[in-house]
Amino acid sequence: MAAATQERIDTTEVLRKVRRIEIVTKRFVNDVMAGEYHSVFKGRGMEFDEVREYQQGDDIRTIDWNVTARTGFPHVKRYVEERELTVMLMADMSSSGKFGTTKWQKEDLATEVCAVLAFSAIKNNDRVGLLLFTDRVEKYIPPKKGRRHVLRVIRELVGFRPEHHRTDMIQALDYINNVLTRKSVVFLISDFISENIRSSLAITNRHHDLIAMTISDPREEALPAAGILEFEDAETGEMALIDTSYEPVRKKFNLEAGKEQQGLVSMLRSLNIDHINLSTGSEYAKPLIRFFRERARRF
Q1: pTM for the model
Q2: Which terminus of the chain has fewer CB atoms gathered within 10 Å of its CB, N or C?
Q3: Are 213 and 187 in contact (CB under 8 A)?
Q4: CA gyration radius for the chain?
Q5: Which position has the higher pLDDT, 46 or 296?
Q6: What is residue 137's three-state secondary structure?
Q7: Are residues 170 and 97 in the same domain?
Q8: 71 with 200, same domain?
Q9: DSSP secondary-structure letter at 95?
Q10: At 27, is the pLDDT very low, low, confident or very high (cuts 50, 70, 90)?
């Protein structure tokens, strides 16, 4: 009985969070993001729509000479933009995502950003899918359209409990390359604490439009002078005591963190992979909008 009661409480809490995320993100999408998204992801090209009789003002280069010869009247081919895209959200659910020293944990920020992207996609009649991974693929939801489907995606993100703790991005990227048979827009949302991923990123970006979204916390970039602190690696469980009041320790930590971040940025740039940097210490709206506007200028 107690277990059933707890399950109902957990389900109610998940639905409450899903509803809050829907309200917050849909408002942002409707007010800001919809136009930005459409200006960047315009579709895969043009597809044939119909043949109709020539009308004054039609481009003569579109005349269908076979139909014209058969009917005795000039006919033109009409094309429309092939609008539908497939958007795949790849979310890192390893234990490092439970870290956060501000208003967000990294996994909460990832969830809300995924909701923004999902609602932006369906508003443009695109299909949305979800892949949740740790050191293996733990959940895959095939791409579909519609509000009900997006709410399922958000519900999975909010209520998901991973079976594993570490990160293996290579497995997740290999899985995506196998299940997505057509070119898709792939958002990879992670803190990118994973090794030897260059080759897998390059292969995925060759087949799809891969966009890397890195999520970090201010305390991962700079240590405060707060005395002796105990740190735990969320993925391995290893513990360490660090005297943050000692300036050389803080300087070394900050330098190493900066090198790792710059190394990741340089690698993504060399692979021509677009990158959005998000932090739990600031709002996600500005970097998202800046990315879409900068990309729109390039395409």
Answers
A1: 0.78
A2: N
A3: yes
A4: 23
A5: 296
A6: strand
A7: yes
A8: no
A9: G
A10: confident
